[in-house]
Amino acid sequence: MRRTPAFRPRRGRALAPVAVLALVSALAAGCNDDGGDSDSDDKDEKDGPVVALTEEQISEALLQEENLGEGWISRPAEEDDGKAPGCLGQADLLVEQLEYQAKAGTEFEYGDSLPTVDTSISAYAAEPSIKAIFDQAQVVLSACTSITGEDTDGNTWDLTMKTTEDVRYDGVDDQLDLSATGTIAEPGGQPVEVYIETTYVRVGPNIAVVATVDVQQRSTEHAAWAEIAVERLVDVAQGDEPEDTTAPAPA
Fold first, then answer.
1. What is the pLDDT at residue 97?
2. Is the preceding omega at residue 115 within 30 degrees of 0, hence cis?
3. Residue 113, in any domain of the structure
4. Which residues of the chain have pLDDT under 70?
5. What are the record keywords, sorted (predicted)?
6. pLDDT tens for residues 174-203?
7. Which of 46, 132, 165, 246 is the most buried (most CB within 10 A)?
8. In this predicted structure, what is the pLDDT of residue 238?
9. Tens digits of per-residue pLDDT, 218-232?
10. What is the domain-level CATH number for residue 127?
11. Structural domain that includes position 67
């Protein structure tokens, strides 16, 4: 089944820090906030504080086509100023409070269809500021378990979300995982069922996002792609060269 614009991740939102939120053209939220401070103990083990990555470092840290294997095509992520409905839009307003120093993203698609994987990294000047915004977004999302209504592009959303803030990766200071299911309908079109998995991590003043969209569940595949993406970010942030790792092809 070919992808329609209704499934297409919002490329520009993938570049926003927590944009949990409007990263994909289908997202919803709901999480249990534990106070917003889930910094990993691994931070104390780093060789000095992590600083904001440069554009060159971000290019190296981003998920690469060879990490996904054969059958994938990639292109640079595109900006999108569209707004999501409900609490996703509210969280997006938090994102706009800070200006990034550098950012980049890549969008992948499997052949000319689904699934799609979007990855992005945004670097900010001050870690306390981006940490506070990340934490505030978690609070906003904790009050939201479903998204219904139209976005500014006229797409109609009807989604539910499960969210966790468990930090599962070494070298990561904060993490947010979202799993959304439901339907999205383009203007005048019929609702189409979508499955979305999104992982957000903060490493110092840097935010990485990995989002997977498909018309079938891709939890296992997303976990593999996200792990590779996070490992690349942590390696570059710590001054190491990322490993050459290739994930299995989608089933």
1. 76
2. yes
3. yes
4. 1-48, 80-81, 95
5. Signal
6. 998 888 899 999 999 999 999 999 898 999
7. 165
8. 94
9. 999 999 999 999 999
10. 3.40.1000.70
11. 55-238
Q: What is the pLDDT of residue 90?
A: 72
- Nearest Cα neighbor of 67 from 196, 233, 179 is 233
Integer Cα distance of 96 and 204 in angstroms: 19
Residue type, 135: D
Tokens standing for residue 11 = 């490329």
Report the C-alpha gap between 198 and 176 in whole angstroms: 8
Residue 232: its pLDDT value, please?
98
d(CA 245, CA 35): 35
Q: What are 235's two structure tokens?
A: 């390696």
- Give yes or no for a contact between 198 and 23, defined as CB atoms under 8 angstroms apart: yes
Provide the Cα torsion 110, 118, 29, 182; round to 10°.
Answer: -20
Structure tokens at 168: 């599962």
**Domain tally, the chain:** 1
Q: How open is the CA angle 76-100-200, to the nearest 5 degrees?
A: 70
Which residue type occupies 1? Answer: M
Q: Are 211 and 194 in contact (CB under 8 A)?
A: no
Widest distance between CA atoms in the chain: 55
Contact 192, 5 (CB under 8 A): no
pTM to 2 decimal places: 0.80
Establish if 138 belongs to a structural domain: yes
Question: Residue 70 falls within a domain, yes or no?
Answer: yes
Query: How far apart are alpha carbons 83 and 240 in whole angstroms?
Result: 37
- Look at residue 80 in the predicted model and tell me its pLDDT: 67
Unique residue bearing structure tokens 């976005």:
151
- Check: CB of residue 199 under 8 Å from CB of residue 121: no
Residue 36 lies in a domain: no
